[in-house]
Amino acid sequence: MNRRKFLKATLISGIAISSPEILFPLIAPADAAVKSDLAVARGTSPARITRAAIDGLGGIKRFISRGDVVVVKPNIGWDRTPEYAANTNPEVVATIVRLCYEAGAKKVKVFDNTVSNAKRCYKQSGIADAVSAVGGLVSFIDDRKFRDMKLSGYALRSWPLYMEVFEADKIINVPIAKTHGLTTLTLGMKNWMGIMGGWRGRIHQRIDGSLVDVSMAVTPVLVVLDAVRILTANGPQGGDLSDVKLLNTVVAGTDQVAVDAYGATLFGMRGSDLAYVRMGHEAGLGTMELSKLKIKRITA
Amino acid sequence: MGEIQNNSLQRFMIKKIRIATQGLFLLTFLWLFLQTESKGANELGYPVKIFLDADPLLFLTTSLATWSVDKFPYLALIVVVATVILGRVFCGWVCPLGTLNNMAGSLKRWRLQTAPLNWYRVKYAILIFLLISSLFTLQLTGIVDPLSLLIRSLSVTVYPMFSYATGAAFDAVYSANIPVVVSISEFIYTILKKTVLPFQQPFFIQGAFIGILFFLLLGANLIERRFWCKFLCPLGALLGLLSRYAFLKRSVSEGCDSCGACTASCQGGAAPDRQEERKNTECFICGNCDDICPRNAVSFGFSLKKPGASLDLGKRYVAGSILSGIVAVPLLRISPLMKPAYANPLLIRPPGSVEEKAFLQKCVKCGECMKVCITNGLQPTFLEAGLEGIWSPVLIPRIGYCEYRCTLCGQVCPTGAIQKLDLAEKEKVRIGSAMVDKGRCLPYAHATPCIVCEEVCPTPKKAIWLETVTVKDREGKELIVKQPKVDLTLCTGCGICEAKCPVIGQPAIYVTSVGESRSKDKQLLLP
Predict the structure, then answer these.
(1) What is the pLDDT at residue B115?
(2) Interface pTM (ipTM) of the complex?
(3) Partner of A221 for a Cys bridge, out of A63, A164, B15, B294, CB 3.0 to 4.6 A?
């Protein structure tokens, strides 16, 4: 939808497409957006690379319109401070919230159904403070706001999901890249566990299908994978700094499967090594064939 | 009534100041109670146990039982000194339970009592019992200490009730889904959640039992005002003894015509109409007798004169309480629960708890740790720790696990039964060990994937590890599953695995106290 609109728009503005970036520096971001499916930004400032990655896709205005109610969904699952790489980097989350407001969003909501005690997770992750500081609305999960949703049935026919996600105009998924005992890695698709209610531990019985089901129920306009620090062992909760690797990287894309497939490469794997990525690819949720994608690499 | 109101401004001055003071202390107490909740940071930021620290009875009995002093009791000493000088001002002006008793008593319209109960000695018997038994290492004070009792009752019963009732009311409006009404009610609900409601609804297994006792105690005020304070409170008894020679004394001038107005208004039952027989140890310095006296014959002032009536506790009474205090010790210690091998394996104590024997001597069952526990996992025991340990804290992981990096219970414990730990110490403390029940675990017994226990295990190197195994299902088809194993050298017994185990009800992985670091006896692995 968004993508198609964009292609149409760019066909009309043919000049922009055919122009070398150097000659038209002002139109360059828009140009880049057309061509790139993924933007990978590297640099020492999480805020700067987050902005750069989103700009690499065409800038936040491509995704967020004036008056939008936006849900930004980080991983706040654990009672860990940022250096342990168990939760999404607070600066990455806050930057996205700030960008949404810059694009004219009306409200930007941030929440997660945590695993550890929610108050500690929100506070210790640094996310609640960072997001509040830029005007984001941080809320704790309200058990009354789960509704049974029909799912595609690869593993789950229905499951209680968090309604605020579906009431929003736009959704941005902001996972962190970590290892996981069952799914090998937890990236973007796995981050949707944080909008699941009920006795959700059970989904591990058919985890890959479950992740595809939930990912198909949600349509994020943007996925921003935080790989500023990645957790290479003892994930997803972590706790040992020697398992944390500093990558100073943020990956942005609109294709949930492609972002996760790229995320796998950060750990020296391929997307097809992850069963849920494979299933997502086969289900038509997105593509894991990175070779067919235009990936823009930015140093910021 | 009219007659009294005419010149009430001056006449009820003391009462007004007293009620304001009582209100202030009660509100402070309740505010600190509300602050006994995590905001997500490592520290609470407020001295929430300050009232318990000011309790000389808790200090005295804990010190006697352990024959040691945890910290210098500044606040308790202030209460003692104030009592020695002024009398039982703590009872009359400060004690939050006393104030609640006042309030409960005012629910009934009182006529002049012709034959008030005369059970005031009972509290001295309770006090002597507690002092003697604690001298012989048995610490039961927390059961009846007014501040322990109040904080426990509020934590375990009243506050959860308040939260439940409020939540149910707002939920009803929410589900009725009337457009404007819902947005108003949700707005109010949000404010209440941020101010007076708990973060999540607390549930306590002893809630109803402890609550019934508490409501009976309040209800007794309808039999006689301040029933508890006059007849039962051991702290009141201790302060009564200390106030025996208080410098602040009451005198009655010649103008007294024995009208009896003061007796009817006396909160402590000190018999103020009979100067010679007045029991100054029972006086709360409430000032009612001064306020009410139609002849203005009553006054309070400092003097070194000997008090009037002698304090007669009754020799048999005293001997009986001393004897019971002694007898209680072996009576409660002959349970096989005292043997490490038979000790209740599910008695998981909070992290930082001292060794069980010392723990029972120190724990005053105030319930602060249960109030502050962020997962609601700390619950009051019933008989798991013997009668001696009733209402002491036990971690029940199925209700709530011990959050790996949380140290709040040790911060709020008033007696050091749970030691205050810093984060680095806390992460090393072992409160038990988890073990897998292979008969219920999905990958072991049912050829079904599941790794939840491993996923949530919080130790830096996970204590739960997975072995990849090929199993067969009913049709003989081979499946690869990961079976969890517990590395006992790493497991801290936090119980998050048990809390999150998808096998609902009886979990497939559970914690028992074996291996807890505070016990020498309950070790499993060779060092």
Answers:
(1) 59
(2) 0.91
(3) A63
